[in-house]
Amino acid sequence: MAPAILKYLELPFCVLGIYGCYLTWGILQEGVSTVSYPSIKTGEMGRFKKISIPRKGLIISYFTVAFIQSLASQFGYNSLKYINYPTMILGKSCKLVPVVVMNFILYQKKYPWNKYVTVVLVTVGVSLFTLLQPAKANAAEKTNSVFGIVLLLINLILDGTTNSTQDKIFSKYKITSSQMMLWMNVFSSIIMTGYLMAIHPLGNHELVNAISFVAERPEIIKHIILFGLCGAVGQVFIFYVLGNFGSIVLVTITVTRKMLSIVMSVVWYNHKLAFGQWIAVAIVFAGIILDTVVGIQQKRKKQAEKEEKEKSKKI
């Protein structure tokens, strides 16, 4: 009886957590950014300045990466029509590889040896774990086509280009994660709205049809709002990680998310995993632990070298 009750309480608990934290966050943010406050020195009322428009070079960079990201999603969605489930899973599991490759090709960025080992271990582990997951009995198996695989490869390359370019923008312009999130969303919205307006004839317009659907079925509005809210909260975390830890860490988190959710389900509901899946989990965690331990050692070494240089300067 208790597990059944916990099952029903699980989602409401998560929803309340998200609402409580981020609705309050939104209200406070609005107050901080729009309400005038008195100065304790002069009594003069004032508020934060409105957002500044980025300079031309940065605007072009924002637009470019937003365009590449929007283009990548179209190739990704269309590839699903021509490839089977295992191929799709392999594609999603291998997203770390194009990030490393495109960082090197476009920006000649090299990583420490532990990053390359981690990329290989996480990619292999996640791929094995998901491929060993039992397929649904009613799932119709599709065959792969060359066209579908090409679309998937283009999607992976564009995703890698997006992440590596975002890394470059952060390092070059020293912007915040909030600035990146804002302008990426602004330009992505403009691009996708233009796409919707241009790709379909007026008589059969996707945007018009969507608006008509919502107008006829207003009950869906609350679900759309919740959908947007969850996406917005998720983006806050995503862009924070991207800005502070880099694309390799972010993509590692995203490609391991589904695997960890399945492992949590196994622990919580006493489901079973195949022996090979446990091996895959061990491979992934081995990669993550290796990267963490070596990363800590490298930071300590750099700190020690820095302190040694400061001591030698004093002498």
From TrEMBL:
Work out whether the entry's keyword set contains rRNA processing.
Answer: no
| Keyword Lipid metabolism (UniProt) | no
Sorted UniProt keywords: Endoplasmic reticulum, Membrane, Sugar transport, Transmembrane, Transmembrane helix, Transport
The residues that cross the membrane are 57-77, 83-106, 113-132, 144-161, 182-200, 220-242, 249-269, 275-296
**Protein name per Swiss-Prot or TrEMBL:** UDP-galactose transporter homolog 1
Q: What Gene Ontology terms for biological process does this UniProt record contain?
A: UDP-glucose transmembrane transport into endoplasmic reticulum
Main localization is: endoplasmic reticulum
Q: What InterPro entries does the record tag this protein with?
A: EmrE-like, SCL35B1-4/HUT1
User: GO MF annotations for this entry?
Assistant: UDP-galactose transmembrane transporter activity; UDP-glucose transmembrane transporter activity
User: Source species, please?
Assistant: Neocallimastix californiae
Write out the GO cellular component annotations: endoplasmic reticulum membrane; Golgi membrane
The superkingdom of the source organism is Eukaryota
What family does the Swiss-Prot or TrEMBL record give for this protein? Answer: Belongs to the nucleotide-sugar transporter family. SLC35B subfamily.
Q: Give the UniProt subcellular location, in the record's own words.
A: Endoplasmic reticulum membrane
A Pfam family hit: UAA
**Membrane topology recorded in Swiss-Prot or TrEMBL:** Multi-pass membrane protein
